[in-house]
């Protein structure tokens, strides 16, 4: 009996030791997991890329490239200590915000008239909001003044280029309006940017108005449309005025991809700009120049 009691006491002590070892192992595992989580958080915070929005053109830039962008694009030197607030982070003064008397919408004070023009179309509502100002009495037939200084400023031009390149005007109608206005104002950079977006979004419109999607002769050695690429509208004008180059009539690629496609878009089954008689004369000239033996 005495020996059995001694064995029971020894077994109890051995179990207590095993429990202590298990608890110590669990605590060590928890500490290792906590340390691993902290290290992963530090690594993720170190690998995170900080971005900043340009306050002039609204581009999203890396924080390290912000000063370089401001110096090159906008000719503005930014010190490391100076912090420029962007349009999105800038706080709006509550005193500038007013309620519309018609729809009780919160609008900026200087945008109240524009809100009335766009949202509330009836003249009575316009009188209620705008009042009997001399500007409101102006006739609709009088020409509207254009703020030339704002539209020709480099900041506005750079902002427009940034919006076009970012895809904010990725709509065929908007791009065509931009192309028309930029060509009227002779803004070559904006015209080139619109051409690039049209090439991606509306390739058929790009082929009609600008030129081919792929240049067949990059060196420009040939004297046909392969070396001098033109749009389908320009080729249609050449067909109407009978000034298609002889080299283009001889070239099979120009005939299939340029001249015939211009006839398909602007011919009798298209826009009906080219007559069938002029197309017959072009076909006869093609046959005479390429297959005649005399």
Q: Could you characterize what this model shows?
A:
The structure is a single chain. This protein is mostly helical and 294 residues long. Among the domains are: 49-86; 94-130, no CATH class; 151-209, no CATH class; 232-291, no CATH class. It has 13 helices and 4 strands. The protein has helices at residues 2-47, 66-73, 112-119, 123-130, 148-151, 154-166, 172-185, 188-201, 203-209, 232-241, 246-250, 252-266, 276-291, and strands spanning 51-53, 60-62, 97-99, 106-108. The strands form 2 sheets. A two-stranded antiparallel sheet has the order 1-2. Strands 3-4 form a two-stranded antiparallel ribbon. The longest helix has 46 residues, at 2-47. It is elongated and about 120 Å long.
Helices and strands, with pairings:
Blueprint: H1 2-47, E1 51-53, E2 60-62, H2 66-73, E3 97-99, E4 106-108, H3 112-119, H4 123-130, H5 148-151, H6 154-166, H7 172-185, H8 188-201, H9 203-209, H10 232-241, H11 246-250, H12 252-266, H13 276-291
Antiparallel strand pairs: 1-2, 3-4
Helix pairs in contact: 3-4, 6-8, 7-8, 8-9, 10-12
């Amino acid at each position: 009996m005495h020996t059995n009691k001694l064995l029971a006491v020894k077994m109890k002590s051995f179990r207590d030791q095993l429990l202590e070892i298990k608890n110590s192992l669990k605590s060590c595992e928890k500490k290792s997991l906590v340390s691993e989580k902290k290290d992963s958080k530090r690594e993720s915070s170190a690998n995170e890329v900080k971005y900043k929005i340009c306050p002039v053109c609204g581009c999203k830039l890396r924080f390290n490239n912000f000063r370089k962008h401001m110096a090159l694009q906008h000719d503005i030197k930014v010190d490391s200590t100076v912090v420029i607030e962007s349009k999105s982070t800038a706080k709006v003064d509550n005193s500038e915000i007013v309620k519309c008397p018609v729809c009780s919408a919160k609008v900026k004070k200087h945008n109240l008239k524009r809100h009335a023009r766009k949202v509330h179309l009836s003249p009575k509502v316009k009188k209620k909001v705008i009042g009997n100002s001399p500007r409101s009495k102006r006739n609709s037939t009088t020409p509207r003044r254009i703020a030339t200084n704002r539209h020709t400023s480099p900041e506005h031009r750079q902002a427009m280029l940034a919006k076009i390149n970012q895809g904010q005007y990725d709509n065929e109608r908007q791009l065509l309006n931009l192309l028309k206005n930029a060509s009227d104002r002779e803004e070559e950079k904006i015209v080139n940017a619109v051409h690039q977006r049209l090439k991606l979004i509306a390739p058929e419109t790009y082929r009609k108005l600008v030129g081919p999607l792929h240049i067949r002769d990059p060196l420009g050695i040939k004297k046909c449309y392969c070396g001098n690429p033109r749009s389908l509208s320009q080729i249609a004008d050449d067909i109407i005025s009978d000034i298609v180059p002889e080299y283009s009539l001889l070239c099979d690629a120009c005939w299939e991809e340029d001249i015939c496609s211009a006839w398909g878009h602007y011919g009798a089954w298209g826009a009906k700009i080219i007559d069938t008689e002029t197309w017959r004369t072009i076909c006869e000239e093609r046959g005479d120049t390429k297959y005649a033996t005399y």
